[in-house]
Fold this protein.
Amino acid sequence: MVEELVTAVVATGAAGVVYLAAAARVVKQYERGVVFRLGRLYSGERQPGFTMIVPGVDRLHKVNLQIVTMPVPAQEGITRDNVTVRVDAVVYFKVVNASAALINVEDYRFAVSQMAQTSLRSIIGKSDLDDLLSNREKLNEGLELMIDSPAVGWGVQIDRVEIKDVSLPETMKRSMARQAEADRERRARVINADAELQASRKLAEAAQQMADTPSALQLRLLQTIVAVSAEKNSTLVLPFPVELLRFLERSAQQPAPTERALEEPGPPPDEPGP
C-alpha cells in the first residue's frame, strides 16, 4: 500500500514537472506574447517575464518590439522632368500592437517592404531631379507618410524613412559636371570684373588726389624707390614722371632770348627830309 502510494506520488510529481516544462514560457523584455487558445485570441498580451499556457490548447507567439532597420532595394524610375534614376532607401519601423501585427497581416515585415518599394517608386515619379538631390528632407517626410498610412492598421509604426543614394546615368553626370564647371567659371569672371571695377575706381581717386597735390606724386616716387631698393637687386628701375617730360618738352619748344631778339624786327628808319 505504501509502495503504491509512493509510486503514485512520484508519478504525479513527474507529470507535474512535465506539465510545468510544457506550460512554462519566458517572454523577454523587448518582446510581447500573444496567446491563441483553440485558434482564438485569448486575453491580452503577455508582458515580459515568466508566463504559463495550457499545453496542447494554447499557442504562444512572441513578437519583437525592437526597431527594425529594413533596406529598400534600389528602385528605377523616371522623374517628373524625364530623367531616369535609381533610388534606394532605408525604413525604420517597430511593432506597437503585437496582436494586430499577427492577426491583421500575414507577414508585416514583407508587407512593409513592399509598401516601401511602391511608395518609393511613386515618390520618384512625382519629384524633380533637383528635389531628389537637394530637398531630401521633404521627400523623406512624404515617403514616411505614404508608408505609415496603411501600416497603422497592421500594428506597425514607421519611425523614420531615409533616402540613401540617388544613382544617375553617366551621361547625366557628365552634363551636370559641365554645367557646374560653367557656372563656377561664370562666377569667377564676374568676381574678376568686379575687382577690376573697384580697382579702377580707387586708382581714379588716387590720380585725382595726386593731381590736386603734386607733392604726393614725388612722395609716391620716393616710396617706390625705397620698395625696389629693399629687394637687393643689382638693377634699379627708376620711374620718370610724365609731368617732368612734358615740362622739358615745353622748354625745348620755347626759343632762346637772343634768338627772339634777332627774330623780332626793329623800328623802321627815319625817312630823309626834302
User: Anything to note?
Assistant: Strands lie at 24-27, 31-37, 40-46, 49-52, 58-64, 68-78, 84-95, 156-167. The two ends are 204 Å apart (CA to CA). The chain is about 55% helix and 25% strand. The mean pLDDT is 82.
